[in-house]
Design brief:
This protein has four helices and 18 strands. It is mainly beta. It folds into two domains: 110 residues, no CATH class; 166 residues, Jelly Rolls (Sandwich). A hairpin with a 2-residue loop joins strand 14 and strand 15.
Length: 286
């Protein structure tokens, strides 16, 4: 018993001494605030330290666009804020250009070797002047309602500003947790056993339309009906992608070379025959 007590006391001392002081996080925050541009990524490592980083850096730096990003490809540069020698796995091929230490916090500036800039982000187009939504043959008006959220199993928060459809379907911007519980900002559009049509107005096209899609993490384990999404322009199909339970945050891409430099309406038809299809997707032209 005395030996066990001494061992526990030693472990306690090691754990408390390993805690990074708040002043170190705050010094790192001030440095990043001075040097990071709006288009830069700010990411925390290890992953379990992300809530600590958000607490100290605040929403002005740890923005939802950075924290719930679709992936890292759109960012030309990243500020990796890390403790205990950890690194963000997705940034391992990026080139370090600077490194600063603030006590127990290291800030490494990394350059993206092949950034893929965005032309038009469809998630940002979910508003009444850029989008039309219909379910079946009925239009879905844009409404301002209270945000709805719940406990385990509720799914992503239902945004207050959304397109509300007859029968309970809706379309709005939310954040989905994927199979690894990583958050992603996306267009929350559960098809509710039918088809929901999204028409994005005046989309600027480049060489490709690329994106990701997923179900809320718990719905990914239901073995329910797949979800089919067909993208089209002017009645011509660009491509179709299917999401099946268990595939997680799945990437897709379609060639839009013939549309490059043009501005056209883009339609996305989301279809499923199942229930609790808590579906969310993001897409952008490049």
């Amino acid at each position: 018993m005395p030996a066990a007590g001494l061992l526990e006391l030693g472990a306690h001392a090691a754990q408390t001494q390993a805690v990074v002081p708040g002043r170190d996080w705050e010094a790192a925050r001030d440095y990043v605030s001075q040097h990071a541009k709006p288009e830069d990524l700010v990411a925390f490592a290890p992953r379990w330290a992300d809530p600590i980083g958000r607490e100290h850096f605040g929403p002005a730096i740890a923005t939802i666009e950075r924290e719930a990003r679709p992936d890292e490809s759109r960012f030309p540069r990243a500020f990796e804020v890390s403790i205990r020698g950890a690194h963000v796995p997705a940034l391992r091929t990026w080139r370090p250009s600077a490194e600063q230490h603030f006590g127990g916090v290291a800030v490494t500036t990394l350059e993206n070797p092949a950034p893929l800039p965005i032309i038009d982000d469809l998630v940002s187009a979910v508003r009444p002047d850029r989008m039309r939504v219909s379910a079946g043959d009925r239009e879905c008006p844009f409404v301002h309602m209270p945000t709805q959220s719940g406990g385990l199993g509720f799914g992503p928060a239902i945004p207050g500003d959304r397109f509300g459809c007859p029968g309970g379907a809706f379309v709005g911007v939310s954040v989905v947790a994927d199979l690894d519980y990583v958050p992603h900002r996306c267009i929350y559009a559960p098809p509710s056993g039918g088809t929901v049509r999204l028409r994005f107005l005046g989309v600027r096209f480049g060489r490709a339309l690329s994106g990701h899609h997923a179900l809320y993490v718990e719905a990914e384990h239901l073995k329910g009906a797949p979800i089919t999404v067909t993208f089209s322009v002017g009645g011509s199909t660009l491509g179709t992608v299917v999401h099946r339970d268990g595939e997680g945050w799945k990437q897709f891409e379609f060639d839009t070379g013939p549309l490059s430099g043009r501005q056209e309406d883009l339609t996305a038809d989301i279809t499923s025959s199942g229930e609790r299809r808590l579906y969310c997707f993001e897409a952008a032209t490049r």
